[in-house]
Amino acid sequence: MIDLATVARPIIGAPMAGGPSTPTLVEAVGAAGGFGMLAAGYLTPAALADAMAATRGPFGVNLFCPPDTEPDLASAQAYRESLAQLAQQYAVELPPVAVAAAADDDHWAEKVDLLCERPPAAVSFTFGLPDAETVERLHARDCTLLATVASVADARAAAALGVDAMCVQGPEAGGHRATRRIADEPEDVPLLELIAAVRAAVSVPVIAAGGLMDTAAVEAVLKAGAVAAQVGTALLLADEAGTSATHRAALTDPQFTETAVTRAFTGRPARGLRNDFVERYDTGAPAAYPAVHQLTRPIRAAAAAARNPAHVHLWAGTGWHHARPAPAADIITRLTPA
Ligand SMILES: Cc1cc2nc3c(=O)[nH]c(=O)nc-3n(C[C@H](O)[C@H](O)[C@H](O)COP(=O)(O)O)c2cc1C
């Protein structure tokens, strides 16, 4: 159980799946007076258990909710064909569509069981909402439940489920947009407006996320009524973050001049630095998650191994150019209003 009003600093270290959110980062955010979140996404249940065991102090865990629809195989096949030339360039085999599109719920049931067995202080959800039974089971273990939402309609649905707080994600956010359904196109109501609209619609506390890179931005969301700010991109260059070398280098590379929201890498909309892969594949990318994630994976892995940022997903929020390498404690302190 976590009472956000009692956390020393109103800063939550965003869960960042794919490497950045290490136990060391989560612990450092907590030790600095904030609250850190482990990212369960893409991990096996055993790897999640290890990460939880390795993290000291109160922390939260973020889960990807299972996909709401099955992918359209024809559009996944067409996308696979469009990737063939790049696959050849890296000399990698792409999985057949039937394999890439096989049912994959990111080990939802096993992860929920694990969290019920060893409850963390908080559990947050993205990519949809949990079922009522999961809410009941985790509440029975005293977990504070946070739904990540990016629209008023989804905030209402989350409130009806009885979650304890909303993480409201604005369009400025790095990484995947917290759209509920795979086919949903993300809205672009700016964060401060979205906070006001969600607060008017639901009565639970609101945490704000998206593009918060300095004290003034944190101050603004607190003034708008949020109880805390959740920051991702600001921590990507933290000493304790597990951000890959290619991703770190790209975040300070002047060749990248903007971010874009694209389905090209995973099939769900996500914001990252606009690179050659986005240029080439954004238009044809189908709303097929996680099939597209599986299809593009060999190319992304080969490009990362070659330290080539052109064909790797480089998640970043709109404020990425303000990210600086530093110990996480310094970043958290710098973000905290006086
Ligand atoms: C590299 C990266 C990975 C992310 N992974 C997750 C995740 O696993 N689960 C989640 O709920 N949000 C994830 N997010 C989104 C964050 O929770 C948050 O909404 C976002 O970082 C806020 O915007 P900012 O990056 O501008 O601070 C990720 C963001 C980034 C940058």
Automatic annotation (TrEMBL):
Cofactor: FMN
Coiled-coil regions listed: none
Catalysis performed (reactions): 3 propionate 3-nitronate + 3 O2 + H2O = 3 3-oxopropanoate + 2 nitrate + nitrite + H2O2 + 3 H(+)
Molecular function GO labels: dioxygenase activity; nitronate monooxygenase activity
BP GO terms, sorted: response to toxic substance
One Pfam short name: NMO
Highest taxon of the lineage: Bacteria
SUPFAM superfamilies per UniProt: Inosine monophosphate dehydrogenase (IMPDH)
Record keywords, A-Z: Detoxification, Dioxygenase, Flavoprotein, FMN, Monooxygenase, Oxidoreductase
Matching InterPro entries: Aldolase_TIM (IPR013785), NMO (IPR004136)
Protein family (similarity comment): Belongs to the nitronate monooxygenase family. NMO class I subfamily.
PANTHER family xref list: NITRONATE MONOOXYGENASE-RELATED
Designated name of the protein: Propionate 3-nitronate monooxygenase
Native organism: Nostocoides australiense Ben110
Organism taxonomic ancestry: Bacteria, Bacillati, Actinomycetota, Actinomycetes, Micrococcales
